[in-house]
């Protein structure tokens, strides 16, 4: 249990807050590359409690600047992209990607007033079909080239804006027992109501032992389930949680929009067969959160998580009231993660460099992460075969699972095409 003040310190991300300062030491995904094109060259973005405009100039340069024009405050998301930057729609002031005003068409010839006008601007970079932003002090660290982002593959990205604080989403990744209930027993309950036959439901092995270790990129979580031993990959290799706000493989970025909202970006990249060229770009899909009855849906895995995270904060502006919780022995991963957050906030306050920041290009070519499922491409282990919902052939999903999150999934499309070609 935390005090209300401790809870605020861990959850608030605005400028000048301890957690906001820690979060500003990392790159965060804010959009898919495909979301900024000739038809939609600008996008309003809110990140770490700050409103911003992301734009792509007429020659493809990306900029991320404050949204209100310095002149008389018109919103630059309605601006016109030019080679040098974005031109305000109201009186035509032009800003480059650094936020510097470089043209004021109605000012007298030779005026140097524009040199005194500069908007707040942040760095942006693209990797693996996503656009990342960095809002911290200079020099900016390297944008981490985590394996899934750096290899060519069937890329797939889903993003959802959740009305809850980011910490609920992240604590879930240190909460290994929830899979057994939320996705296992509760998932089976929901799928049964939608007509799933009993032999298609998950078998739900019980967690016998949980372990958590701090490593160079964050925390490795381990577990032994019924039928497994200490030699099983679930224990021996484990699964990485990347500090401060990513669940790895597939990467789930929990990006704090502000204290009460989180951009959840789920990103996968399945390695390509040798004869398949890498797709140029990835689309970004927005899986539904609410059903027609206004309730949070639960018929796909992420939605089950979303239900838990959002409802944890429903009584308090999206932030779970940790001053009222009762942590148990099985919550030891959450306790470790909170301790690590607290230590790293203090480290930043003392002028230090926090965990999992990259500055050496030689170590950032492709960051290979440990993952108990790395062998999945070669075939699932028997326990995972029985644990997963029975797969449909050729990339199809069973009718009791909501198809929305799978729309446009490159790997499933490939499987379907291959099956069609074989018949
Ligand atoms: S408000 Fe933008 S140029 Fe006047
Ligand atoms: Fe989950």
Provide a descriptive summary of the structure in words.
By secondary structure, the protein is α+β, with helices and mostly antiparallel strands. The protein has 2 domains: 31-134, Rieske Iron-sulfur Protein (3-layer Sandwich); 147-422. The chain has 10 helices and 18 strands. The chain has helices spanning 4-11, 18-23, 147-150, 166-172, 178-193, 233-236, 301-312, 332-349, 382-387, 410-422; strands at residues 27-32, 42-47, 50-56, 62-65, 80-81, 85-87, 94-96, 101-103, 121-127, 130-134, 153-162, 207-215, 218-225, 239-242, 246-247, 251-258, 261-271, 284-285. The strands form 3 sheets. The protein has an 8-stranded mixed beta sheet with strand order 12-13-14-15-16-17-11-18. The protein is globular. It binds FE2/S2 (inorganic) cluster and fe (ii) ion. The site of FE2/S2 (inorganic) cluster has 9 residues, from loops.
Total DSSP helices:
10
Bound molecules: FE2/S2 (inorganic) cluster, fe (ii) ion
Compute the CA-based radius of gyration: 23 Å
For the record, give the distance between the C-alpha atoms at the N and C termini, rounded to a whole number: 59 Å
According to DSSP, the number of beta strands is 18
Strand percent estimate: 15-25%
Average pLDDT? 91
Biggest β-sheet strands, sense, barrel: 8 strands, mixed
- pLDDT below 50 for ≥5 consecutive residues: which ranges? 376-390
Strand order of the largest sheet: 12-13-14-15-16-17-11-18
Look at the helices and sheets and give the structural class: alpha+beta
Number of domain modules = 2
Q: List the secondary-structure elements in sequence, H or E.
A: HHEEEEEEEEEEHEHHEEHEEEEEHHHH
Helix content: 10-25%
**What form results from the Cα inertia axes?**
globular
